[in-house]
Amino acid sequence: MVGVLIITHGNLGYELIQSAELIKGRMDGVLAISVDPTKGVEELKKEISSSIKKVNKGKGVLILTDLFGGTPSNLSLSFLKEGKLEVISGVNLPMLLKLPDIREKDLADFAYSVKDYGMKNISLASEILNKKIGKK
Amino acid sequence: MNISLVRIDDRLIHGQILEAWLPFIKASCIVVADDNVANDFFRKSVIRMAVPSDIEVIVNSIEEFIENCSHYEKEGKKTIVLFYDICNALKAYNFGFKFEKLNIGSVQSEKNRKFYSPAVYLCKDDIENLRFLVESGVEVELRCIPRDKPLNFRDVAKKAGLT
To answer: What is the pTM of this model?
Structure first.
């Protein structure tokens, strides 16, 4: 099972897990870290590093972050290791809901599926409606 | 002086810069003056990818920055200059980058640090360096994002019993 870490500005990660569990039930092997201005960069790096160890069951770790270019993402990228650790930015609830279904995939496949599912689940209502009734 | 914001931020380019300061200032250029980033291809690439493509990004070592800063000032672009710590900003100041205002965003000095605001922990050297800048006529403010109320360093220092 690939381990998952959600690293975000503030408590977004914890809340995402809570929301996902409301819909899908207990999420195993998923941890959240909140980044706020009171924590120093070195302190955060240590927290991330120990959380990676906690969720890693030998199949690698996927880190989900909220915003590319933000501190959670910048720090996560410094742990990037091909085949061992992947980072996706722009985390959303659909991504989390997908996790339990594909946990046994290898890291590369797993990361790709999560990203794909997260992107597919962003929709603009009027666009869908127009497609359905054949307008452009 | 055309530089719009000179800031100390140990996170350099991050969410607050991209989503708050950049649109607030309507800057068209960001300069990261930092030796570590200048020597790190990966971090440089990530910074370039994170910043919207219509904003110019310049990554300089402190030495390169000192060489180039008068040129950046002359260019007249609204520019944000970022330093990792107070030491680096002071070095640039002493070598000719004479800013009038200094914004302190996030400083988390590790050794013998003291709390000044949730994102600012300063050590003795930091205080001395800031004092020097204030005495040289630089206005020093503590402020994370544009919407925060700026705290003047003099007031903060006075409150902490440092005067």
So the answer is: 0.88
How many CB atoms are closer than 10 A to CB A10? 13
Q: Check pLDDT > 60 for residue A136.
A: no
Residue from A77, A76, A30 nearest A54 by CA = A30
ipTM exceeding cut-off 0.95 for this assembly: no
| Nearest in space to B111 (alpha carbons), one of B91, B129, B126 | B126
Selected residue of B8, B9, B10, B11 to mutate for chain A interface (largest A Cβ count, 10 A): B11
pLDDT tens-digit series, residues A75-92: 999 999 888 999 999 999
**Cβ of A69 and B50 within 8 Å?**
yes
Q: Do A77 and B118 touch (CB under 8 A)?
A: no
Query: For residues B55 and B82, is the Cβ–Cβ distance under 8 A?
Result: no
Contacts of A71 in chain B (CB under 8 A): 11, 14-15
Cβ atoms of B10 and B108 within 8 Å: the answer is yes
- Given B42, B46, B144, which is nearest A37 (Cβ)? B144
Question: In chain B, what's the furthest Cα-to-Cα distance?
Answer: 46
Closest residue in chain A to residue B107, using alpha carbons only: A40
Three-state DSSP state, A14: helix
Helices (H), B76-142: 86-94, 124-135
Q: How far apart are CA B86 and CA B10, in angstroms?
A: 10
| Encoded tokens for B123 | 């050590």
